[in-house]
Amino acid sequence: MDKLQTSLKASDIDGAKSLLRTFTARKKELETYCLIRLTNACSEAANLTAKNFKRMGRGYINHENYRLRIFSFATRDLRPC
Questions:
Q1: Do residues 25 and 46 share a domain?
Q2: Residue-number span of the structural domain to which 52 is assigned
Q3: Which of 38, 53, 58, 68 gets the highest tally of CB atoms within 10 A of its CB?
Q4: Rounded distance, CA 39 to CA 43, Å?
């Protein structure tokens, strides 16, 4: 991480300073991912699916049907996480 920060500080590439700020702000998260290789991508994908169904529902009437539709789709194994 220190080598990367030094390289970004010395770089003339557009956006290097912005990238350096992002790395500095997310240093803890990046180090954690490098150590344990675990993310919350699966839960985020499930939340996005629920939000997309809500957008498509456009004023759903029966909340139970809406809830069951989300669960039936979101729990399908579309791709491994």
A1: no
A2: 41-74
A3: 53
A4: 9
